[in-house]
Amino acid sequence: MPLLAGTSTSRSLFSPSAVAAPRRTAIAPPPLVFRRRSPVAGALLFLSLGAVAGCVLPLARVTVHSSTSLYVLKISSVRTLSSVQMEAASTTVPSIVVYVTVPNREAGKKLAGSIISEKLAACVNIVPGAESVYWWEGKVQSDAEELLIIKTRESLLDALTEHVKANHEYDVPEVIALPIQGGNLKYLEWLKNSTREN
Question: Transit peptide as a keyword (predicted)?
Answer without folding.
Answer: yes
